[in-house]
Amino acid sequence: MTVDQRRIFNLNDIPVSGGPVVYWMSRDQRVADNWALLHAQQLALQGNVPLAVVFALAPAFLGATVRQYAFMLRGLDQVAARLQELNIPFILLRGNPPDEVCRFTREHNPGALVCDFDPLRIKRAWRDQVAIDSGVACIEVDSHNIVPCRIASPKLEYGAYTIRPKIHRLLPEFLTDFPQPVRHPSDWQNLSQAHFSKEGGAESILSSLSIDGRVGEVASVVAGEAAAHRHLLDFITHGLDRYDSLRNDPNAAGQSGLSPWLHFGQLSAQRAALEAGRAAGGTVSGDAFLEELVIRRELSDNFCWYNMNYDRVQGFPEWAQKTIAEHRHDRREFTYSCEQFEAGETHDPLWNSAQAEMRTSGRMHGYLRMYWAKKILEWTPSPEAAMQTAIYLNDRYQLDGRDPNGYAGIAWSIGGVHDRAWGQRPVFGKIRYMNSKGCRRKFDVDRHIHTWAGIR
Fold it and tell me: Does residue 155 share a domain with residue 87?
């Protein structure tokens, strides 16, 4: 069960003591293929002590709605059931996460607290507070990336072309199969916190939250580890061999569709890479899928980890900040409010159909998402307003919102991140431009509009 020590980072240099071990699950919400859970159990087995998993449920999180909370909680239902089979209690903490985790550690005196790696500012602040205030050895394990973010590169990368050779060099060492957790031999007696199941599970917890219910669940996307693995198998069996030829067509369902499960950590990217590599490694489609799954995902984590302004104009590269400053006051032919964007009430039927698809399905094809974001830049009064609008809509409606991939993609579209300077244009300056004519050369635009027209 040994976990590669390069995945492990001690956040406060406090040594592990003899008490029970707690895994604070956050980004990686699964039992199988989870290096953080494996390391926590390894510590507990070495010390012959109990192990528990806690999840701190924040009352609000970066604009998430019922759509995202329900998907997460239904996945956690499965986590709780699987951990119960392994004699590992799963405890739900409710409130401000760092406060609740610190309170738990004060009450139960664990010998170590294992947590997930996450590059987002709010999650880093939570971990830093717990590392300072808990008085417990806080150990971070990167189970989300195949090559751990801290190891892949020590700096902010310019683009995929600079991080790709670094990841490829390390991939054979890290892309290994997983051991799996075992039934834990030590009981945690008199654990006073409420178990997830005693809270009533996902339905009861969801009904007790004061969150925005106007964005409903997506019935067609089933949450949890089991559904994630079924979808992965289905994609590998029926879609992987066509991935390279169909992935850029929004009408073709040619992408993997794995992003909701990857975002919530209900599926390990490493497991997806292993299975895809076995099925189609070395083929054009297999290599194209692994480029998106490994290089592009880990480039996004690198961007958010080393650039604290990942969701702001200040995070754009210097050349992009200069060009948007020069074109800040260019006349916009159209301008729309955030409310008009949200309702899909622009003059552009393709943009409106992309927005309708996202509102309805919780997803938007990656090629369309680039077009969608670039038009927000073109039709808002400033780059700052464009960033704010795009992030608000993405995080409100996408099942995979509030994710490094989303922030990096929006920053690419609006601010030239991981891209290069292009020819000068009004409003965009040297930022890459996209229009509907270009989309028509890529796919059947009218079919997409017809499919989603009139949907609210």
Answer: no
